[in-house]
Amino acid sequence: MSAIESTLNHRIDTPSRRSKLHPLKFALYVGLGSLVMMFIALTSAYIVRRASSNWLEFSIPTIFYVNTLVIVVSSLTLHAAYRAFKREATRAYQVLMSVTFLLGLAFLVLQYMGWEELAAQGVPLKINPAGDFVYAISWLHALHVVGGVAVLLVSVVFAYAIKLRKTPARQLRLELTMIYWHFVDVLWIYLILFLSLQR
Amino acid sequence: MAPLKREEALIEEFGYDDHFHEHHHGDKYQSNFVSHYIFSQDHKMIAKQFLITGMFWAIIGAAMSLIFRMQLGFPEESLAWLKPVLGKWITVNSEGIGTLQQDFYYALVTMHGTILVFFVLTAGLSGTFSNLLIPLMIGARDMASPLLNMLSYWFFFTSGMIMFASLFLSTGPFAGGWVAYPPLSALPQAMDGSGAGMTLWTISLVLLVISLLLGGINYITTVLNLRTKGMSMWRLPLPIWAFFVTAILGLLSFPVLTSAFFLLMLDRGIGTSFYLSDIYIGGAALDHVGGSPILYQHLFWFLGHPEVYIIILPAFGIVSEVLSVNARKPIFGYQAMVFSILAIAFLAFIVWAHHMFMSGINPFIANFFVIFTLIIAVPSAVKVFNWIATLYGGNIRFNPASLFAIGFVSMFISGGLTGIWLGNSALDIQLHDTYFVVAHFHIVMGVAAFFGMFAGIYHWFPKMYGRFMNDTLGKVHFWGTTIGAYCVFWPMHYLGMAGVPRRYYSFDSFQTFGHFDGMNKFITIAALLTFGFQLLFVINYFYSIWRGRKMTTKNPYNANTLEWTTPIEVGHGNWPGKLPTVQRWAYDYSKDGIDNISQVQPTLEGESVEH
After folding, report:
1. For a disulfide at B358, which of A164, B95, B432, B519, Cβ 3.0-4.6 Å?
2. With bands split at pLDDT 50, 70 and 90, how would you rate the model's confidence at A6?
3. What is the reported pTM?
4. How does pLDDT run across B202-211, given as a tens digit for each residue?
5. Which tens digits make up the pLDDT trace of B90-128?
6. What's the number of domains chain B is made of?
7. How close A52 comes to chain B (CA, Å)?
């Protein structure tokens, strides 16, 4: 913990900085940019492959749509948790953080059910890349959600373990968590729209 | 005109006090052996770690090329003496003549490419100089996130260890070419190296991508956020521009490679068919249907082409700086240099299919890629013109650094011109997959990037260790390497024009290539000698760390950039007191009759134009 703590507290105080954006936040945005490239690559590959012959037609499981709602709500609760943090409302912060974490877990479980539904629909692996792409893209997304859920778990533990105080370092950490979680949320919205429209 | 003050006095007078040293951050970075030398978070130490790890890989990768070159040049000579090292990969016949196993020949070619491209020229070159120079040249205490910076090195290290381990597998390392095209890479049963070797290869490269992304995020953030007062983007020294754009290229292209590998892993691991279709192995049809190996090539080369600029851009930046300092002249066309870097970076993303002209892409689409490929010659020519114009009329100091920088320009011209040939899809019908391609890319991105790296190492060695490398050994190294490299790669153009294919183990069954035996021998001898000169460099490097001539002044080259205003022994935080404030660009050499004016010097009375 101490290494991360010290990185966050490391005073980066350079006079020519014009923007108010903290360098670590900026770094996170840059990193998310590269994650975006990863998914752009996969979805472009999907478009290219779909254009050639032998493409299996099937519909996206309903659970995936329901799940979109779950992750959007989790983003909202996380945002509410952030506002509770800024007010130093301990109880509200603890509850909202836990709810966000549970919604994150629920998203993963529902995704798993979605894959099972897909398989039950007769879209197994190994038959046609059309199905493979849906699995692969949603797996890779889920992997990034797992990372987000892990960070949320840490936040929940800290929400209960230490007294809530609005220090700049902790606010920054929460903001970084929030940026990442909103990112996986928006990414999923893009992916579900892409997968349902590009059929 | 006001007299020039010493730089430390100027920093004291105009510098910016960030109260850095009141916080004692430095202690936690350098308190004991482990935090100072191993898990260091100091950018200068991390740079040295990258450099020495890169050197380790360069020696391994180059030694591999010598082994396969000996087999190619002297197939009738015995390689039995290599048996203690290579073991079962050397087969000794009844007459006692040892030859390299054919499978292992492919493994060596594959590993040579992988190691040199990814471990030496990407991680080693950019990792070393971005880390060393970005904070020092922009006037920052350290990187934006020293922790991520440390992780970047250790991901690189782990990735290297995994690749190294794969060399010792009983089935051998991956052997399907460094580009890892499916189906060879996607089917574990395709050949020995495609089994465990390929699994480790993929894991290793994914870890390497993570390392490069962590590094790249840091470089971009640092350049944009941590420049000292007065250091506007248009006052940045050119190496920083180059490292910055390199990091952006890497950040946009490496994730695409990860996606390609992700799908490849699924094809290998759980039997999906992204890249595979209608394949028969041992007479039996596999149940993979509907995939396309071309898809992999598109994804791979979307990284693969920017990758060559990721390799060469840092060399561009280093050479620009070294030439300007050693010609005692401002860099010619500073803005043109920056814009040409940006133009090259942009074009890098829209030319990838020129690696695939013969893979079965639509010839009409190929035309589009031909045109953009040829346009790259324009910014490249701008750069070459500017380097030559910088040298023209200069008061040139010939030291190893400047010699290697000049050698870089020579190599870049020689290799760049053949790029114009290869960029034409029609010429590729003859030239693709021949030694012409090997000659082209080795000169323009292999040797040239190495020359940039050597120029940088000789130039900034005093900044890293407080001592100089030996000049005489350095000059011998330069001449040996220049002549040697041309002797190795120039003849390959003729082989390629005659159609000799690359990656072949032997040309016995091709009568038409028989008369190239002598040339092949010549190339092999030249390669062995050139490698010998590199050992000279390694000896010089390690000897000079402890025994080199000591630095007695802060600024031995009378250079203008900020790294030469730091103490000889640079501690954590780089400047002992205030941070320097930048007053001008980095290239005021021989201006108004003054030899050099440091970046911390405010405008002098009666000074002509301002930058």
Report:
1. B432
2. very low
3. 0.93
4. 999 999 999 9
5. 999 888 899 999 999 999 999 999 999 999 999 999 999
6. 1
7. 10
> What is the DSSP code (8-state) at residue B80?
G
| Contacts with B266 from chain A: Cβ below 8 Å | 132, 136
The answer to the question of residue B462 being in a domain is yes
Alpha-carbon span A70 to B440, nearest angstrom: 54
Full residue range of the structural domain in which residue B48 is found: 41-252+304-551
Can you give the C-alpha Rg of chain B in angstroms? Answer: 25
Over the stretch A70-108, which tens digit does the pLDDT of each residue have?
Answer: 999 999 999 999 999 999 999 999 999 999 999 999 999
Residue B27 has a pLDDT of 54
Q: With beta carbons under 8 A apart, name residues in chain A contacting B273.
A: 126, 128-129, 132
* CATH code of the domain containing B357: 1.20.210.10
The span from the CA of A142 to the CA of B378, in Å, is 44
Find residue B281's DSSP bridge partners: B284
Whether residue B574 lies within 8 A of chain A, CB to CB, comes out as no
Q: Which residue from B minimizes the CA distance to A26? A: B221
Nearest to B145 among A14, A16, A24 (CB): A24
Structural domain includes residue B411? yes
This model of the complex carries an ipTM of 0.88
B23 occurs within a structural domain: no
B218 in A contact zone (CB under 8 Å):
yes
Cβ–Cβ below 8 Å for B146 and A10 = yes
Residues 122-181 of B with CB under 8 A from A: 140, 144-148
Whether residue A32 lies within 8 A of chain B, CB to CB, comes out as no
B226 contact residues in A (CB cutoff 8 A): 12, 14, 17, 23
For Cα atoms B589, B592, B594, give the angle at the middle one, nearest 5 degrees.
Answer: 55
Domains and CATH numbers, chain A: 58-197 (1.20.120.80)
CB contact under 8 A, B144 and A12: yes
β-strands B594-596, B284-285 pairing: unpaired
Decide: helix, strand or coil at residue B263.
helix
Q: Average per-residue pLDDT in chain B?
A: 92
B343 CA to chain A: closest CA distance, Å? 20
Are the beta carbons of A128 and B290 separated by less than 8 Å?
yes
Substitution target in B31, B223, B262 with the highest count of A β-carbons within 10 Å is: B262
| Residues A111 and A149: beta-carbon distance below 8 Å | no
The answer to whether position B338 is within a domain reads: yes
Per the listing, tokens 């248009």 go with: B234
Predicted confidence (pLDDT) at residue B255 exceeds the cutoff of 90:
yes
Q: Which long-range contacts (CB under 8 A, 24 or more apart) does B188-194 make?
A: B188/B268, B189/B281, B190/B281, B191/B103, B191/B106, B192/B103, B193/B103, B193/B106, B193/B107, B193/B110
